[in-house]
Amino acid sequence: MKKLVSMVLALALSVSALTACGGGASSSTAGSGTASGTATDAPDTITMLLPPVSTTYQDQLSVWAKEFNEMYPNLTLEFETASWEDYKEKLDVQVNAGTPPDIAWVEYDRVGTLADSGLLVDISELVSEEQLADFDESALEFYRLGEGLYGLPVYISVQCLGGNKAMLEEAGIDWKSVQQNGWTYEEFREAIKAGSTDDHYGFIFACAGVTASDYLNIMVKNAGMPAQFDKDLKFAYTSKNFLELLKCIREIIDDGSTPKEMSSVDAGKRWNMFLTGQTMIFGKGLANFEGLAVANNEKLAANDGTAVEGSIEAEYVVLPVPTFFGEEQQAQGSAAGYGMFRTVEEPDPVHQANVMKAMYFMASGEPAAFTCNELYLSGLSESSRTAMAAIENTVPRSEDNAKAMELLTSQAAEARPDIPAEMTAQATRLMDEVIVPKFQALLAGETTPEEMYEAVKSAAIETFGEDGVVQD
Prior knowledge:
Blueprint: H1 2-19, E1 44-50, H2 57-71, E2 75-81, H3 84-96, E3 103-107, H4 111-116, H5 129-134, H6 137-140, E4 144-145, E5 148-149, E6 152-164, H7 165-170, H8 175-181, H9 185-194, E7 201-205, H10 212-221, H11 240-254, H12 267-275, E8 279-285, H13 289-302, E9 316-319, E10 332-340, H14 349-363, H15 365-374, H16 382-388, H17 399-410, H18 421-443, H19 449-464
Parallel strand pairs: 1-2, 1-3, 7-8
Antiparallel strand pairs: 3-10, 4-5, 6-8, 6-9, 6-10
Helix pairs in contact: 11-19, 15-16, 18-19
């Protein structure tokens, strides 16, 4: 019956579209139509599951819901929020149950796995040409799989390293040169040795739980493996460079430059260690951390008790990840934005058209500009860049950091839409089930680089076959 009603409604709408004039959207809603041409004034609610994307992002949701409703009086945005720690698990549970939200925040490296579920929607037939033209094509590439488009990007954030300016200078590190010219692993190793004292470590990285994959992902990019698969679609982490990289990571732990308990350091503790002066360099570093450090310094100056307990004045410095084995810098560019989902039931074309309106609204214009501005990032659409030009920055930004981040963004590893969704999903499972647990054991000294490498290689061959992995 539901399918029949949908078919009748779709037929009626098609007839209406043939006889009616074009949509009367104002200039503020340009591009809000959909490729399907489906439209109706019937009330509809669009559900969204969202993490705290930026500092006050979740606080803005009610504002954006009101603005969207003013544009489309028959449409209502309904938000479910979650912390970063709970968000991915909550979305996975809903997808596995066949009842995901209409829209969710989707980072590009999860596109393959979610598309493999069959519930992340290919929007290439739903998004209009006008909407697509608003976005940078290079940014859209992060959400393409084959001929399909599985999301709209809001930003590309480079995952790098961050440092304490005073500590770097005390250790004799020319951080400006590092920002402009990069550094090799050997130079990095000596720097964090020099920056390790009785009071603080030279380097730490958040590696608790799934965050361990961040550490590995940004390092392998600079060790000759810019993606999990090479251009021949062979799984890359069976390369000899992967083994040598694991040896380097274990080496700096044995040097005493990083904590032996790094596998238990989570994202919150990592940031706390930076603010309290317990580490000179940390990862992962993000552009907006500069503003967070400035805000904490202001709280310290005000002496009002709101600063992080035990924190010191700290000036944040953007630093690139070191390169290994003579390879070029391939920064970890992490695109993020919105994806559309369907339930296991037959999709309602009218509802999907409404969801597309909401998805474009959130990924463009003022909502995207607000989000990018808080994260110290550039917009990926003309409408968001136009909106950003009207926003006055409330936190002063370091010119050196801005230049460093711009350079790293230009060096970001290219998107790989040529990798099939099924292979991406298989690689993600391999990462979650084998590589991350083994990597955490390596960090904790419970296994060796050689043992981890052999375990990964064996699992990869079992997954992709002898001919489906790099063997050099």
